[in-house]
Amino acid sequence: MYEHYERPLVIDVSHCDWTGKLSVPAAFDLFMDMAARHADAMGVGFKDLTPKHQFWLTVKTRITFYRRPKLLEECTISTEPIRPVAVRGLRDYAITKGDEVLVRGKTEWVVIDFSTNRLVPQKQVLKEGTEMKPESDDPVPFAKISPDFSDAQLLGTHTVQSTDIDVGHHMNNAKYLYALASMAGTQEREALEAKSPYVVEIVFRKPCLEGNELAFYERTLEPEAAPAAGADAAIAAADSKAEDKAERSDSIREIGIFNLSDEPGEDGKRAPSLLIKIY
Q1: pLDDT tens figures, 185-231
Q2: What CATH number is associated with residue 80?
Q3: Angle CA 107–111–113, to nearest 5
Q4: What global pTM score does this model have?
Q5: Structural domains in the chain (count)
Q6: What's the average model confidence in pLDDT over 140-166?
Q7: What is the overall mean pLDDT for the chain?
Q8: Fewer CB within 10 A of the end CB, N or C, for the chain?
Q9: What average pLDDT does the segment 78-87 reach?
Q10: Is the bond preceding 197 in cis, omega lying within 30 degrees of 0?
Q11: Does residue 82 register a pLDDT over 60?
Q12: How far apart are CA 166 and CA 105, in angstroms?
């Protein structure tokens, strides 16, 4: 039987934004927590890998919101790992209510050995005999985001705080979303997040540490300028039972987050630490 982990989920006050619905950053937190719980149950969790100087690292994440569950709504949250290839593995997530898929997620993971700063082959990490499903429920490839933001506008800045740092001793991926959310007012965010489906992707490139000053740059793409594997494919896969029927904007937001502590390259440009795509 394939590895599968699920539990009942009640949308608590701490999960919600001002609309009384599951917030976008909180969904990232919930799925991260599920991955940690399941990895522990599989014998490859934090307490198992730490003595080996190893740590799970999220490289890419996509979460698709079909309907954001409401405050105190009773749901089920689940996760399943996908059969890995070499050093990279995928993991699926879902928040469901009966047969209705409310939120679906997919992450790409690696294990890094901090003593050598090298990636560890998944077969050396997973327990022998671990059975995983062969393919993700989300077949759409992760979006490709150009790291060149020379044509983008500065959205805002954020200084990495101690509360942003996770057990990996760098800024947690979900914290970038909390920082980004703070750069827009409630009316602007409500208009954006009312889309259905509403898709958020994150690409982790390099860590940011406490005290680093981050600059958030944003650009907007029209559909004809967007990568072919982007919004259209994800929209086509939307659950027909989604309830939030707000009219969808075709514009696509891309955010590049740059660590101002990094030295510019020979071309005078800094490489982004993290990329976000919202559509």
Answers
A1: 888 888 778 788 999 999 999 999 999 999 999 999 987 544 444 44
A2: 3.10.129.10
A3: 155
A4: 0.88
A5: 1
A6: 96
A7: 90
A8: N
A9: 96
A10: yes
A11: yes
A12: 21
User: What separation in angstroms does the CA of 142 have from each of 90, 203, 231, 260?
Assistant: 11, 9, 11, 27
Cα–Cα distances in angstroms (integers) from residue 54 to residues 46, 47, 57, 127, in the given order: 9, 10, 10, 15
Domain that holds residue 194: 5-278
Q: Are 148 and 184 in contact (CB under 8 A)?
A: no
Radius of gyration of the chain (CA): 19
**Cβ(82)–Cβ(91) below 8 Å:** yes
Partners of residue 61 on adjacent β-strands: 107, 202
Q: Give 46-55 pLDDT, tens digit per residue.
A: 999 999 999 9
Three-state SS annotation for the chain: CCCCEEEEEECCHHHECCCCEECHHHHHHHHHHHHHHHHHHCCCCHHHHHHHCEEEEEEEEEEEECCCCECCCEEEEEEEEECCECCEEEEEEEEEECCEEEEEEEEEEEEEECCCCEECCHHHCCCCCCCCECCCCCCCCCCCCCCCCCCCEEEEEEECCHHHECCCCCECHHHHHHHHHCCCCHHHHHHHHCECCEEEEEEECCCCCCCCEEEEEEEEECHHHCCCCCHHHHHHCCCCCCCCCECCCCCEEEEEEEECCCCCCCCCCCCCCEEEEEC
Q: How many CB atoms lie within 10 A of CB 174?
A: 22
Over 60: is that where the pLDDT of 245 sits? no
Q: Which tokens hold the place of 68? A: 């954001």
236 exposure class (CB count in 10 Å sphere: 0-12, 13-18, 19+): exposed
**Is pLDDT at 246 greater than 80 in this prediction?**
no
Which tokens sit at 7?
């539990």
256-265 residue pLDDT tens:
999 999 999 9
CB within 8 Å of 90: residues ≥ 6 apart: 81, 82, 84, 106, 107, 108, 109, 136
| Tokens of residue 33, six digits | 């927590």
